[in-house]
Specification:
Blueprint (H helix, E strand, L loop, with lengths): L5 E3 L3 H25 L4 H9 L3 H33 L10 H14 L14 H25 L1 H5 L4 H32 L9 H4 L1 E3 H7 L1 H9 L18 H23 L1 H5 L1
Antiparallel strand pairs: 1-2
Length: about 270
């Protein structure tokens, strides 16, 4: 059996930024949902664990501060990266190919196209998720600051706008939680290609087999540049076996329970 070959996909700076943002989001989701649904029975059990409502609010603000720090960290990183490599290396930005890839991907999922689109370093879905974070920072950050400093915000905005920002902040947070739980988590953990977890977020490395399957154009570029030997990547396994199958069943049960909890707890409240 051929030995697996790995490629560095995330540097230490990437992993630190991801870890900081991940910790902040976990903080914000737990404390934010507890405050949003403070009248629910489950929320009454969460507050004592966090030291009460006041402590929960402080922890929530700490998470918001971490998000601000992560944004500043990332902007500084981008400016340094641009200075070192130039704007042509910003492969995370959208281009015309991403729109054609989205159409081709949809056609492939519908069975109208046999071959899936060939992605480079980032797929259109990865780019969309990345840019959605910036949108979230503007919406959540702006509305959050208005809620955090209401007296100051009242000097610049009417009451009806501040009330609207409170609703926007709360509902956008719920949408972000769903996107993370059922979008990002599947790609990073439950996708058979990476299950039980992609190693990129903690080791920064991706197997050449996985890279060739999900980012064939980047794989080919590395082969042509001599950074990967031709034919180094065997087929990526798609079958869960052994302990991975057992873990898969356990994780699916846990995930199903979480999904059921969302259905009976949160979703009906949006319909009232």
């Amino acid at each position: 059996m051929a030995k697996a070959v790995y490629v560095e996909r995330w540097s230490l700076a990437h992993r630190l930024q991801h870890a900081l943002l991940a910790l902040a989001m976990i903080d914000l989701i737990i404390t934010g949902m507890a405050m949003k649904y403070s009248y629910a029975a489950w929320s009454a059990r969460v507050f004592p664990l966090l030291g009460g409502f006041r402590s929960t609010l402080i922890i929530h603000k700490f998470g918001a501060t971490l998000v601000g720090v992560s944004v500043i960290f990332h902007v500084i990183y981008l400016l340094m990266y641009r200075r070192r490599h130039g704007p042509q290396k910003w492969q995370i930005m959208w281009n015309r190919k991403d729109f054609t890839d989205a159409i081709a991907h949809g056609a492939h999922l519908l069975g109208l196209r046999e071959r899936p689109p060939q992605y480079g370093r980032y797929s259109y879905l990865e780019k969309f998720e990345y840019l959605s974070i910036f949108w979230g920072m503007v919406v959540m950050g702006g509305s959050g600051l208005a809620i955090w400093f209401p007296a100051l915000a009242a000097q610049w905005a009417p009451r009806w706008l501040l009330d609207g920002l409170r609703v926007i902040h709360s509902n956008e947070a719920f949408v972000a939680m769903l996107a993370l739980a059922f979008g990002h988590f599947f790609v990073a953990h439950f996708n058979p290609l990476v299950f039980p977890s992609s190693p990129v977020w903690y080791s920064g490395k991706i197997s050449a087999a996985h890279l060739r399957e999900e980012h064939p154009l980047e794989y080919q570029q590395l082969v042509e540049a001599g950074k990967l030997p031709a034919g180094a990547a065997p087929e990526h396994p798609h079958v869960l076996a052994g302990w991975r199958r057992v873990l898969g069943v356990v994780e699916m049960l846990i995930y199903s329970a979480i999904f059921y909890g969302l259905l009976i707890t949160f979703i009906p409240l949006l319909l009232v």
